[in-house]
Specification:
- By secondary structure, the protein is of the alpha/beta class.
- The chain folds into 3 domains: 307 residues, 3-Layer(aba) Sandwich (Rossmann fold); 159 residues, Rossmann fold (3-Layer(aba) Sandwich), CATH 3.40.50.980; 93 residues, ANL, C-terminal domain (GMP Synthetase, Chain A, domain 3, 2-Layer Sandwich).
- It contains 19 helices and 30 strands.
- The strands form 9 sheets. It has a 7-stranded mixed β-sheet with strand order 5-4-17-16-18-19-20, sandwiched between helices.
- The radius of gyration is 24 Å and the shape is globular.
- The chain starts with 5 loop residues before the first helix and ends in an 18-residue tail after the last strand.
- It binds 5'-O-[(S)-butoxy(hydroxy)phosphoryl]adenosine.
- 5'-O-[(S)-butoxy(hydroxy)phosphoryl]adenosine binds next to helix 12, strand 24 and strand 25.
Length: 622
């Protein structure tokens, strides 16, 4: 087993990086402004978030900024009418942004597409009309099982434009998981692609959809829309399946945006939870739009010349908030890359940065740890001088990888912003800005309007330097609006574990300067390469194998992925442990849950340790 120095380093890190004078001179938001914003937000939180909302366009303004009458079911901007897509597209069509690049897309084989705001606006309108002609309207659910394609962005925005609720299922997940989601979500339409390119291979996506739809898991489902991408042969069911290109060909380039209530749902996105059941996190048009817009502008201090690249997948919240909605709300250019970071070799990301002149690169610690293994040789082959800001999210950023990124990619000149947030949060919560004093491994301090703290299980603040539970003390506009089909979790779990505070599920500590250091999850959720995966999901997949009697999964530290899964299993009577079986079980998990779900090792046991009540004692296996 590999033992990284992550935690140790995090506990002893003392290096400090001050912003370069040039960064402060050029800052739109200097340290003084940031402090003033923090003070204003602390003394008048609703005033602060009202001001943030005033920067956007509304069909009708709110009666109340924050409605707490049904707390902890908070409501933001009640009475307001808006549509996030109006702010992401229509607003820009009226300004110089009209002909500015909205989206730069690169396929893994090297093909490219670029869309100005006007192009994207028209593409979204055409697909909005196509969806409407398929009978999709306000409140309907649409599942997107899509890789990184321009049509993915267009589909998200088209759903939102017509008031339908989009729900992305990560394209690295299997047919089984997709089927479960489709069963839960009951979509009217599923949008997918024939296939896509990944590490030099074609992943056949439509086939997975066909498998997921065997015996009709959703009565609601009427159509499947297929984007033609990878030229693979697919079976099209003429009563149900349509090619995307055929649907949009004759559609008009105008489509009215649906007038939404600020508290109407925008999307539904599943995340792994403690109970083992995935939670459908719902975000609304109004609060989410304000939260993402404000934090995107503040954290990355956008300039009109920026080219922004968030290398996350649109199937995760990072892709929703900071690849699609944030950049488009801000009117900047967002970059999207279809494929693998190591294809055809380990310089692909650096190549993309230099090719398009990316100025802000928002990535994950795993991606950096994967690439730093290859040394500075690859980044050194490219001109990375366009970069001015680097950022990361998803898992604890070990100082060694932070420093590597700062030195080799940022040439010592770009601040590295380690941003903490989560699907439930919708927006960045604890993060430096380009003018902050940085400590490698720390997410620094909460953004204005965010009251974060580290407390014990009774809600008492713990002293500086001591570990505890990360909580948020007051509501924020990007916060989830509900949990699909299980909304009581808001009262019982999120605001109920520690009464009156939002429980994030992370362990953290604050140092003497008030800097936050996130240590990892506090619950039975693994964080593998920045993907939240419930141990219960892995365990149930394992016990689904005919040879397995019982299974327990724990997370163990890993140098590259941060954490990996290790399984302990007992076998059914008459089955003997073997390397072949171990391999078969690992493959079984990937077939069941998807190729991203990697179990590093499997240990066969005669018996699993149990408590007197018969529950498996996970802690004794760690
Ligand atoms: C969990 C949320 C928000 C987008 C990515 C994942 C971990 C997130 C950091 C960070 C240490 C982090 C937490 C959090 N996490 N950012 N900067 N440092 N850990 O979204 O799938 O909802 O996962 O990711 O454990 O709770 P998600």
């Amino acid at each position: 087993m590999e033992h990284p120095d992550t935690l140790d380093n995090l506990l002893h890190e003392e290096r400090v990086f001050r912003p370069l004078p040039q960064m402060i001179i050029e800052a739109g938001i200097n340290p003084h402004d940031l402090n003033a914003a923090k003070e204003f937000a602390a003394s008048n939180p609703e005033g602060y978030w009202e001001e943030a909302a005033d920067e956007l366009g509304w069909f009708k303004k709110w009666d109340k900024v924050l409605d707490e009458t049904d707390a902890p079911f908070y409501r933001w901007y009640t009475g307001a009418r808006c549509n996030i897509v109006y702010n992401a597209l229509d607003r820009h069509i009226e300004t110089v942004n009209k002909n500015r690049l909205a989206l730069i897309w690169e396929g893994e084989p090297g093909d490219q597409k670029q869309f100005t705001y006007y192009d994207l606006y028209r593409a979204v309108n055409r697909f909005s009309n196509a969806l409407r002609s398929l009978g999709v309207g306000k409140g309907d659910h649409v599942v997107l099982y899509m890789p990184q394609l321009p049509e993915t962005v267009v589909s998200m925005l088209a759903c939102a434009r017509i008031g339908a609720v989009h729900s992305l299922v990560f394209s690295g997940f299997s047919a089984r998981l997709l089927r479960e989601r489709i069963k839960e979500i009951q979509p009217k339409v599923v949008i997918t692609a024939d296939g896509f390119y990944r590490n030099g291979q074609v992943v056949r996506l439509k086939e997975e959809v066909d498998r997921a739809l065997i015996d009709n898991p959703a009565d609601s489902l009427e159509s499947v829309v297929v984007v033609h991408r990878a030229n693979v042969e697919v079976v099209m069911d003429s009563s149900r399946d349509y090619w995307y290109a055929d649907l949009v060909r004759h559609e008009k380039t105008q489509a009215a945006a649906e007038i939404m209530d600020a508290n109407d749902p925008l999307f539904l996105l599943y995340t792994s939870g403690t109970t083992g059941k995935s939670k459908g996190i719902v975000h609304n048009h109004g609060g989410y739009m304000v939260g993402v817009h404000r934090t995107f502008n503040m954290v990355f201090d956008l300039k009109p010349t920026d080219i922004f690249w968030c290398s996350a997948d649109p199937g995760w919240i990072t892709g929703h908030s900071y690849m699609v909605y944030g950049p488009l709300l801000a009117g900047t250019t967002t970059v999207m890359y279809e494929g693998h970071a190591l294809y055809p070799q380990a310089d692909r990301l650096w190549h993309i940065i230099s090719k398009y002149g990316v100025t802000i690169f928002y990535t994950s610690p795993t991606q950096i740890r994967t690439l730093m293994r290859f040394g500075p040789k690859y980044p050194n082959q490219h001109d990375l001088s366009s970069l001015r800001i680097l950022g990361a999210v998803g898992e604890p950023f070990n100082p060694e990888a932070w420093i590597w990124l700062h030195k080799n990619i940022g040439r010592g000149q770009c601040p590295v912003l380690d941003t903490w947030w989560q699907t439930e949060a919708g927006m960045i919560m604890i993060s430096p800005t380009p003018v902050s004093v940085l400590k490698p491994g720390s997410v620094t301090k909460p953004l204005p309007g965010i009251e974060a703290d580290v407390v014990d299980s009774c809600g008492e603040p713990v002293p500086a330097g001591k570990g505890g539970l990360l909580v948020i003390r007051r509501p924020w506009p990007g916060m989830m609006s509900s949990v699909y089909k299980d909304n009581e979790l808001i009262r019982k779990h999120y605001w109920g574990r520690i009464p009156g505070m939002f429980y994030a599920g992370d362990v953290a500590r604050k140092d003497e300067d008030g800097y936050f250091w996130i240590q990892g999850r506090a619950d039975d959720v693994l964080n593998i390469s920045g993907h939240r995966i419930g141990t219960a999901e892995l365990e149930s997949a394992l016990t689904g194998h005919p040879d397995v009697a019982e299974a327990v999964v724990i997370g163990v530290p890993d140098k590259i992925k941060g954490q990996v899964a290790k399984a302990f299993v007992t076998l059914n009577h008459g089955v003997s442990p073997s390397d072949d079986l171990s391999r078969a079980l690992k493959e079984h998990i990937q077939r069941e849950l998807g190729p991203v779900v990697i179990v590093k090792s499997i240990e066969f046991k005669d018996e699993l340790p149990k408590t007197s009540s018969g529950k498996i004692e996970r802690s004794s296996l760690c």
